[in-house]
Automatic annotation (TrEMBL):
The keyword Coiled coil applies. It comes from Cebus imitator (Panamanian white-faced capuchin). GO terms for cellular component: mitochondrial intermembrane space. PANTHER family: COILED-COIL DOMAIN-CONTAINING PROTEIN 58, PROTEIN MIX23. The keyword Protease does not apply. Keywords: Coiled coil. Residues 57-91 form a coiled coil. This is Protein MIX23. Belongs to the MIX23 family.
Length: 129
């Protein structure tokens, strides 16, 4: 479920090249479209998508951390349960994977690189972001 959710949440990033190609004008069409406004809207969309993903990942990590903590406490009380140990290892692996998702948001870097290449002359993001 986590993977499917992220697939949907990365739609903006996955389509950024297409979005830029269809909305940011080349020099010959520069007068027909307001590239500054288009780039600003795309910037806001990227910022919102990245912030949303960050919140979701952190929320999932918090919930999974609680699950792992509870399993560890159960295991300490009943150390001879093999099923409990297997479940704990499985949940710990999920937690590590989610933590790595937070640290390796490569998609963000790629999106910002493409955005900056196409929009740098049309829109300057606020300095505090």
């Amino acid at each position: 479920m986590f993977t499917e959710l992220f697939k949907v949440m990365r739609t903006t990033d996955d389509r950024i090249v297409h979005e830029l190609n269809t909305t940011v004008p080349t020099a010959s069409f520069a007068g027909k479209i307001d590239a500054s406004q288009t780039c600003k809207q795309l910037y806001e969309s990227l910022m919102a998508a990245h912030a949303s993903r960050d919140r979701v990942i952190k929320n999932c990590i918090a919930q999974m951390s609680e699950v792992v903590k509870n399993l560890q406490e159960k295991r300490e009380k009943n150390s001879d349960t093999l099923m409990l140990l297997k479940q704990l290892r499985k949940e710990q692996a999920k937690l590590k994977w989610m933590q790595s998702e937070l640290n390796v948001e490569v998609v963000n870097d790629r999106s910002w690189k493409v955005f900056n290449e196409r929009c740098r002359i049309h829109f300057k993001p606020p300095k505090n972001e």
